[in-house]
Amino acid sequence: MGERVRDILLAVLTNLKRSGWAGLASIATISVSFIIIGIFLLLTLHLSALVAMWKAEFQVVVFLEDGITQEQLSLLRKRILNEAAVKALSYISKEEALANFKRELRGSEGLLEGLGENPLPASFQLKIHEKAQTPQVLQQFAAYLGRLEGVEDVLYGQEWVEKLSTAVQVLKILGISIGAVLAFGSLLIVSNAVRLAVYARAEEIEIMRLVGATRAYIGAPFLIEGLLQGACGALIALAFILATQEFTLKQLGLSTAHFLAGALFLPPWMSASMVGAGAFIGAFGSFIVTSRFLKL
Questions:
Q1: CA distance linking residue 25 with residue 233, whole number of Å
Q2: Distance between CA atoms of residues 183 and 189, nearest Å
Q3: Per-residue DSSP letters for 74-114?
Q4: Rounded to a whole number, what is the distance in angstroms from the first to the last CA of the chain?
Q5: By three-state DSSP, how is residue 28 classified?
Q6: CA-CA distance, 144 to 19, in Å (whole number)?
Q7: Measured distance CA(98)–CA(96) in Å, rounded
Q8: Strand partners, 92
Q9: Which residues contact 94 (CB under 8 A, 6 or more apart)?
């Protein structure tokens, strides 16, 4: 058993040496494919993290009429808090709204000179449960709030909800589509490289078959060769993406601690999956070629 493993490993090394430019082309193709796939995954992760952060801070602002009475205010508060979509409610008076506005204009307070009467309305700021933060639910909820007595207007940033949700979905679909096409292309390149290696050793393989070598024994070195090429290509892609990201962050003056709360790079399970996928593509391409050749 030990001698067989040694012979297979020696055959793998021989195949890798003989593959030359074809082998390098396989690794390069897989690397480029996984670089593109990795970039899409990274963009999707960052955008998803951004959406999650935005949803955590998301608020619906209910602007109140100036003439609202204390009784109407209390009744309105109760009605809103009874809604299932509402997680929390805070009341901002006209005075607090003006004070907050002045803080935002710090250094430019002169713009408020001669303002006279406070033009800012009182408001309720509502935190919404994440399950209710969809464009359809928010649109219906805002329409309902707008019909309540004492409500002047409702603001919730519908465009941002729709655009961010759409962007995440589009990136996922693009990533899956492009990833599938690139994976198929990589499979063809690896298959061609292994095919060249197989035909280069055709006479040697025929001799091995004549002396009783099994198909599994003959095909194992080529299978391992494809597996190593695929895994190597994926590892190179991960290293390239990481180096590029670090360089970009450095140029922007950002550090890992400031970048989306630690969502900097692909999580370990996703990186391992990419390496596994590369190894599978390489091994599967080799399996297809060797199986056909040995049948002939």
A1: 10
A2: 10
A3: HHHHHHHHTSTTEEEEEEE-HHHHHHHHHHHTTT-GGGGTT
A4: 28
A5: helix
A6: 69
A7: 5
A8: 123
A9: 118, 120, 121, 122
The token pair at 58 is 């998301």
Task: For residue 232, count CB atoms less than 10 angstroms from its CB and return exposed for 0-12, middle for 13-18, buried for 19 or more.
Answer: buried
pTM recorded for the entire structure: 0.62
Distance between CA atoms of residues 26 and 194, nearest Å: 9
Which residue type, as a one-letter code, is found at position 128?
I
DSSP helix/strand/coil, 151: strand
Structure tokens at 294: 């040995």
Q: What are phi and psi of 290, to 5 degrees?
A: -65, -35
Exposed, middle or buried, 147 (CB in 10 Å: 0-12/13-18/19+)? exposed
Alpha helices in the chain (DSSP H): 2-57, 70-81, 94-104, 135-146, 158-200, 202-210, 215-252, 268-295
Domains of the chain, first to last: 2-54+162-295 (no CATH), 59-132 (3.30.70.3040)
Q: How far is CA 174 from the centre of its chain?
A: 11
Q: What is the pLDDT along the chain (296 residues), one digit of tens a residue?
A: 555 545 445 555 555 555 556 667 777 788 888 888 888 888 777 777 777 777 777 889 999 988 888 888 999 999 999 998 899 999 998 888 878 777 776 655 555 555 667 778 889 999 988 788 877 888 889 899 999 988 999 988 766 666 777 777 787 788 778 878 877 877 777 777 777 767 766 776 777 777 777 777 777 777 787 788 888 888 888 989 888 887 877 776 655 444 444 456 778 888 888 889 888 888 888 788 777 777 75
